[in-house]
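FIELD: query
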Amino acid sequence: MKYFIAAGEASGDLHASELIKSIKTLDPEARFTFLGGDLMASATGHEPLIHYRDMAFMGFVDVVKHLGAVTGNLKTAKQAITRERPDAVILVDYPSFNLRLAQHAHAAGIPVFYYISPKVWAWKEGRVKQIKKYVTRMYSILPFEVDFYKRRHDYTVEYVGNPSAEEVEARRLALPSKEQFCATHGIDSSRPIIALVPGSRVSEIRNNLSIMAEVAARHPDYTAVIAGAPSIDPSLYSSITKLPVVDGATFELMAVADVALVTSGTATLECALLGTPQVVCFRHGGSKLVYNMYKRLLKIPFVSLPNLIADKAVVAEMLMHLCTVDSVDAELNKILPDTPGRIEMLEGYRFMKERLGTRRAAETAAADIVNYLKK
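FIELD: result
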């Protein structure tokens, strides 16, 4: 069968590549046309129709600045779907672009499968109307989304498992010891480690790292280490603090750390799955006005994935104007070694992992897609 797959960013390329491998196992004759990256190219054996680096425009301003490229990419993708008439169109997150493809494929009578639901529970819930109209099957990697769709929109989605949980389990055996990690990166291994994970975007790092560094300075018995993000100029970190930076090893750093300060995102889930107690920091300018605006707009009780999955406050979320040196340090002190707060957080992590379950996301979704098409 023929499959058209659209992934518009690095994380989508990773998840889609695993889905492709699983589909090929079930459908050895599978042929793929795709928008994506190098991992999908490796899985299919050929280059993408459009590489995600030419698609990954984030935010309203960025999209407007590159409107010509966005329009051209959409036209190219639609023409490919019309020309090749795939048996299935598979979309991976990236909703602004992909929902337009869903509408086009639906109009052409091609079943649409959405692997990794857009976060409509947090932002732009109105997109559910398009999803219900154009998407044949929706696959979720966050268990609470099943109830959200059903309760609020009477729409059935399938929870297929969580790729982050799978990745952590797969990589855990190959993790270095603390001594090995410190020797590799020239870090003092005699003291406990505080991992500072300030995000992967320039704005996140500027907003969060200075707070994190000041908190770390209050704990001179610890070694503070910054997780450097790909494509970030090292001078950005050095302009804020002189703390050591480890590039390309965020996962390993969180694993060997005793505690962590983490900017909200997938890293908070990975940190929880690794069993490292953390404080979530998301200053984003620190405006109380913006904080109150977000509280009205967001329809969720938490912003960090560990809390959303557990449906309770497992980790402290220090957001906007609440993310100060004093408040973050107060929460950090609660989860240092030999504290009741640390024990409570680790118990919350175990509860969260139980909710995630053990299903393998790509294999489960691939089996459902192939079975649907065969029927």
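FIELD: remark
The chain has two domains: 2-161+359-374, 167-356.
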